[in-house]
Specification:
Blueprint (H helix, E strand, L loop, with lengths): L2 H12 L5 H11 L7 H13 L8 H11 L2 H10 L30 H8 L3 H8 L17
C-alpha cells in the first residue's frame, strides 16, 4: 500500500461516523469503487479492533498503521490494482476530551478557522505558519553561542 493510498484511506476513515458501514462507504468512494472489496471490509474490521474510538488528530499515525493491516496477499492485490485516491474527504478536527489542568484555562477550538480567529490571521497565513508545504523543515536554525 502506497503512502498516498494509506493517507487517503485514513482521511476517509476519520471523516465521519466510526462505524463499519459508513467507514467502508467512505473508503470505497475515496478509491472510486462501486463495490466494497473484501480487503477493504477486513481493513475496517481491523482498524475498529485496534481503535475502538476514532483517534483524535492522529491522521499520520492511522495512515502509518494501515499498511500493517493488509495481509501479504492482499497487499499484492492492492498494488496490482494500482489503487489511488480519487476523492479526498477532509476529516474534521476537534480538541481532545481531556479537561485542562486546574489553573490552565484553555480556549476551546472547534476547527482550524477558530484557531485562525484566535491568532488573528487568515487561513492562508495559518497554513504558512504551519509550514504545510514543508518548505522550512530542513532550514538550519542559528545556534546560540556562549561566549
Amino acid at each position: 500500500m502506497s503512502a498516498d493510498l494509506a493517507a487517503g484511506l485514513a482521511t476517509a476513515l476519520l471523516a465521519g461516523p466510526w462505524e463499519p458501514a459508513p467507514m467502508q462507504r467512505r473508503c470505497r468512494e475515496a478509491v472510486g469503487r462501486e463495490r466494497t472489496p473484501r480487503w477493504l471490509r477486513q481493513l475496517v474490521v481491523e482498524v475498529l479492533g485496534y481503535h475502538h474510538y476514532p483517534p483524535r488528530d492522529a491522521l499520520r499515525e492511522l495512515a502509518a498503521l494501515l499498511p500493517r493491516f493488509t495481509r501479504r496477499g492482499e497487499s499484492g492485490r492492492i498494488s496490482r490494482q494500482r489503487l489511488r485516491v480519487r476523492s479526498w474527504t477532509p476529516a474534521p478536527s476537534a480538541m481532545g476530551t481531556v479537561p485542562p489542568a486546574p489553573g490552565w484555562p484553555v480556549t476551546p477550538l472547534d476547527d482550524l478557522f477558530a484557531l485562525a480567529r484566535l491568532l488573528d490571521v487568515d487561513a492562508g497565513e495559518l497554513a504558512w505558519l504551519a509550514d504545510v508545504r514543508g518548505m522550512e523543515r530542513d532550514a538550519a536554525f542559528p545556534c546560540a553561542t556562549t561566549g
